[in-house]
Amino acid sequence: MSISVVIVDDHDVIRVGVRESLEDDVEVIGEAKDVESAIEAIRKARPQVVILDVHLPGGRGGGALDVLAEVLGVPGAPRVLALSVSDAAEDVVAVVRAGARGYVTKSISGPDLSDAVRRVATGDAVFSPRLAGFVLDAFGAAGGEVAVVDEDLDKLTEREQEVMRLIARGYTYREVGEKLFISIKTVETHVGKVLHKLQLSNRHELAHWAARRGIA
Amino acid sequence: MLAVAIVLLVGRTDELHLPPWLIPLIVFIAGLALAWSPLDAVVAADARRPDVVALVSREAWVRILLGVFVVGFAVWLFARSDFTDSRAVRIWAVGGATVLAAVLLLAPWWLRLIRQVSVERERRVREFERAEIAAHLHDSVLQTLTLIRAKADDPDAVARLARAQERDLRSYLYQERRSPADSVATALAAAMSEVEDTHGVSIDVVSVGDAPTSEALRAAVGAAREAATNAARHGVGPISVYAELAAGRYQVFVRDGGPGFDPAAVPTDRLGIRNSIVGRVRRQGGDAEVHSAPGTRTEVAITVAREEER
Fold this sequence. Notes:
The complex is a heterodimer.
Chain A: E1 3-8, H1 12-21, E2 26-32, H2 35-45, E3 49-53, H3 64-71, E4 79-84, H4 89-97, E5 102-105, H5 110-121, E6 126-127, H6 129-138, H7 158-168, H8 173-180, H9 184-200, H10 206-213
Parallel strand pairs in A: 1-2, 1-3, 3-4, 4-5, 5-6
Helix pairs in contact in A: 2-3, 4-10, 6-7, 7-9, 8-9
Chain B: H1 2-16, H2 22-36, H3 40-44, H4 58-80, H5 87-150, H6 155-174, H7 184-199, E1 203-208, H8 215-234, E2 239-245, E3 249-255, H9 271-282, E4 287-291, E5 299-305
Parallel strand pairs in B: 1-2
Antiparallel strand pairs in B: 2-3, 3-5, 4-5
Helix pairs in contact in B: 2-4, 2-5, 4-5, 5-6, 7-8, 8-9
């Protein structure tokens, strides 16, 4: 069963590149190049996944955020994978907090991107090493802050930190599972919980904090 | 007609027992409203348009002049009403009223002037920034594109140029410029860029936490650089580097894309790993471990303690 996607990017070259690099089971059913055409294309094509560039012209100037605000939160809403060349932490965090299920950089390889699309389509979260590093930084993991209960939105549990560290070190989900002797499903569950915390935590006003600190 | 009504009213104030300043005040407000009514356009208009006079129509000028006249009339009414017996109070009150009237009449023009000055300043700042960005792009991106066009038949050179330019532009756009001495994250990123350039590989560097580069941290960065060089020489695929600065220690992980090797089978006279990676960090009281096996990815874990914490 193929996965339907809409690609949103203001650069023709990138759209063509992404379309061509996707594997056969990922079917591109629409493309858009700014906020307005993206909202229209997504409503019309009703894809499972939207590959969304973080910086887009049009709308109210919020780029991907404007698109997310329009297309998420309705029944049958697509799942969104954010794609960017930007390393600015505040951009990354803002799109994830606005509802994107994952973040990858444009230097990602075709098979990896296809894999990320499949993962997002099934409701899993996709963390690039950079996003994992940011999460560790933002939640004070290096400072030794550990959540005792799962429900603590402002800290990561020990297991979540281990998973994030391995992802930051370049491990795939499968490799993380092998290293920690847990199943790949369990890895996905941990990543999903971290995504949830990233979206809901008020810790230091994450986005604001990120703007000051920046991902080095 | 309005004026006649006012004059009639003034004549009858004594009978109505109104305070003597009430009528002048009402007339004053009416005059001010009349004078201000066409000025909305002037204040609200794009402050970048210096030509204010052209914004005001002939009819508007008539209203402004009429307004000024009515305000003057109000002040005159105020001056001749008997609100006090003291001569000094009368002079001060009338003087104050005149100044107030002038200030209020001029207020919209003054507001506009302030806005225009701030817009001018903003525009100069923007122009300066734009010129600076243009200069930077010219020195970097345009030069590189020219070089790339000249070397179009040499894919390696093109890839290297593109990568170096991308990194440069990225750091220009997104990062605060910090020196490698002030920031171990910058030092690590710089070391990895050099490996990228020398060996034509791509290295994904993620740093958590940052601090000035101490002796021990510098050793760790040096060891990581050696590890990345090894990975570039012997491994395939992208290299991942993850550095984490915690309260008491600094850890760097360098991981390649395979194909791995058997560490026990490396002859002891091969000094690469032993000296430049392990030895370098051991001298700083740290340690480095190489995890590898044939058919897996190789990972070098480098750990040093942070002595400045003690």
